[in-house]
Amino acid sequence: MLKKILKYLDKHIYLVLLAPFMILSIIFTLIPIINSFYISFFDFSFLNPSKRSFVLLDNFKAVLTDDVFLTALKNTLLFVVVFVLAEMFLSLIVAVLLNAKIKYSNLYKTLIYLPYVVTPIAIGGIISQLFKKNSSLVLFLAKFGFENVTWNSTAPYAFWLVLLIVIWTQLGFFMVIYISAIKEIPEELYEAAEIDGANSFKKFRYITYPLLKNTRTLILFMCLLVSFQLFDLPYLISTIGGTSPGTPNNTTMTLVMYIYANAFRYNNMGLATAASVILFIIIFILSFVQNKLGERS
Amino acid sequence: MATGFNKIRIFNQGHITTNKPLIEIKNISKEFDGEIVLKEVDLTIKENEFVTLLGPSGCGKTTILRILAGFENPTSGDILFEGKSILPLAPNKRQVNTVFQKYALFPHLNVFENIAFGLRIKKFKEPDIIDKVKQMLKLVKLENFEHRSVNRLSGGQQQRVAIARALINEPKILLLDEPLAALDLKLRQEMQYELKEMQVKTGITFVYVTHDQEEALTMSDTIVVINNGLIQQVGAPIDIYNEPRNRFVANFIGESNIISGIMIEDYKVKFEAHIFDCVDRGFSNNEKVDIVIRPEDMKIIDKDIAPMIGVVDSIIFKGVHYEICVIVDGTEYVIHTTKAREIGDIVGLDVEPQDIHVMEVGVLGNE
Ligand SMILES: Nc1ncnc2c1ncn2[C@@H]1O[C@H](COP(=O)(O)OP(=O)(O)O)[C@@H](O)[C@H]1O
Ligand SMILES: [Mg+2]
User: Fold this and answer.
1) A197 and B118: CB-CB below 8 Å?
2) Cβ of A202 under 8 Å from any chain B Cβ?
3) How high does pLDDT run on average in chain A?
4) From B71, which residue of chain A is nearest by alpha-carbon distance?
């Protein structure tokens, strides 16, 4: 009997090896997901967890008719579009430029990568210092006609400020992925093209760019996932100085902020879970498409 | 003529190059971070010539090609093309194209687009491109492969695409860096033949790099033997084979018996305590020399009349011949013969005067 078990384990050793990770991800990922699907059909409050009533799709109805949710959705979509376009373009350009043999390129790479590894709290702190009332930056910008602007809480500047800062903090990460992909391209390909008379631009156009196709797809989806799930920086920036999340007037409210605020600030679990189910579905579809594309190439 | 050529196929007998110098490499030296890689290389390459740079790995062959192609600059010296220096010219302004060691095909393009690449960069018109690519596909025997992805080609086919991609630009000179090294023996021999055919057909000057002496002997009009960044000998395959200039060349080109001896006077050389007649002259009397004798030139004869006597130490059957190792007074001689012997047999050895090749001791190139 023991022999049989050992033999079984021997054959299915991967189960043993996978078990710790599987168990953890079941407890901390799968169960909460299922749970929030479940909760989203109830009227539920942390203040009175035992008293909950089944409301079927009422939560979804409430979410989809909630102006704040629709604003958050619209913000997030705009954010996603601009972020993805800007990040894909900038990270590629920066990677190609810094991959060329220029002086101090390693220093530049480090400087660009640095914000990515700095904790968002610190970034938020830096931003709050930079843009606090009468800081030198604010006074400097005032000279260009931006007088009396509180950058982190005036529409429409707050949204674009958040966007800019998130693009800046993430740029280094995507740049590193591009650089390592570019380094994989054999030098002889460029030499072969050079013999045929290709200049730097043509080498980029006909060799580097097409050969980065898979990397581009990867980065596209990573950008999508990052921007759909955006939370910490917009939350920190909009709450600088004690204002409420999404300040001003929910113009910096993202989907995840909406979920967080409803769940933990406004004690509105129904809205929060329904919104998170919607976000889950969006992310799930994205990951699914990405996996399918990955299998094909 | 030496009898040893039964193993070596020569494709280019009768193919005559014009005598016009096309490229003159003048006293080129190259250092990498203070390490000298090429030392005062001097070489003239003629129009329509098939020149092979032959030498062991690391001797500087690729570096010479890269300098010719324009990817490296020599530390000193000059390169003339039809009498004019090409050192200031960018790679694409030289009439040179390269077939890279690892093919360097564009993995995202199919066979057609790989070959068409140079023409597209130069903005040729579509009908011209189609025409020329078709011609090239025919030349390299890859008709009907144009829409194949290059990743799904065999090594030999990829090599053909690489050659077509280079030739379509109509270079005056094609540089080939060990193009056949990755192929198996049979395919390599086929491709050697085809490359030679292509070179004759197109009339393009080939500068071919290899570390394989048989390949060099088979294909070349001229072989340049290189060691440690120094040219050791330049010559036709037969001359290099028959008249190696020094121990290194003799060793590198085929198996040889290399013996120390003394040049008694013109046409008389002494080794193994016997004075042999030979055809060499011009050494000082009693000068120490190295002597090369090809295994197929050693004759086993009746020991009573032989100048050298030895004991058979080993015998290996090689198909066409036996390779016999005979020890003469402590020196080992390798002999190719069609008649088997027993280990331990006492045999007599002799060599014809014209098969004794006398070389100066320790001559390196450029001296
Ligand atoms: N870019 C380089 N930097 C430094 N050393 C080099 C470089 N290219 C070649 N070498 C050195 O030059 C020598 C000759 O190299 P190479 O021309 O590639 O030899 P081969 O092609 O005959 O094998 C080697 O010792 C090699 O290490
Ligand atoms: Mg090499």
Assistant:
1) yes
2) yes
3) 88
4) A191
Cα dist. B274→B266, B268, B350 in Å?
Answer: 15, 10, 11
B100 Cα: distance to centroid of ligand 1 (angstroms): 15
| Separation in Å, CA of A87 to nearest CA in chain B | 25
What are the residues whose beta carbons fall under 8 Å from the beta carbon of A151, sequence distance 6 or more? A131, A138, A141, A157, A158, A161
The residue whose C-alpha atom lies closest to atom 7 belonging to ligand 1 is B32
Cβ of A195 and B98 within 8 Å? yes
Whether omega before B179 lies within 30 degrees of 0, making that bond cis, reads no
Contact B7, B67 (CB under 8 A): no
The whole-number pLDDT of residue A237 equals 85
Asked whether the predicted pLDDT for residue B343 surpasses 80, the reply is yes
Q: Which of B32, B101, B177, B224 to mutate to test the pocket of ligand 1 (most atoms within 8 A of CB)?
A: B32
Nearest CA in chain A to B121: A198
Q: Which two tokens stand for residue B288?
A: 């120490």
User: Which residue, judged by its Cα, is nearest atom 8 of ligand 1?
Assistant: B63
Domain residues for the domain of B281 are 256-298+351-367
C-beta atoms of A196 and B122 within 8 A: yes
Residue-wise pLDDT tens digits, B6-52 = 344 445 444 555 678 899 999 999 999 999 999 999 999 999 999 99
Q: Do residue B153 and residue B286 come from a single domain?
A: no
Q: Is residue A175 part of a domain?
A: yes
Pair B223, B360 in one domain = no
The pLDDT score that the predictor gives to residue B8 is 42
Tally of structural domains, chain B? 3
Q: Is A210 on the interface with B (CB under 8 A)?
A: yes
CATH code for position A89 = 1.10.3720.10
List all residues whose CB is within 6 A of at least one atom of ligand 1. Answer: B 32, 37, 55, 57-63
Phi-psi region for residue B170, left (φ > 0), alpha (ψ -120 to 50) or beta? left
B319 with B229, same domain: the answer is no
Q: Using the beta-carbon criterion (under 8 Å), do A197 and B117 form an inter-chain contact?
A: no
What CATH number does the domain containing B335 carry?
A: 2.40.50
pLDDT band of residue B207 (cuts 50, 70, 90) is very high
- Residue B344 DSSP SS3: coil
A86: containing domain:
50-120+160-296
Count of residues making up chain A: 297
Q: Which residue of B has its CA nearest to A199?
A: B121
Q: Which helix (H) or strand (E) holds A5?
A: helix A2-11
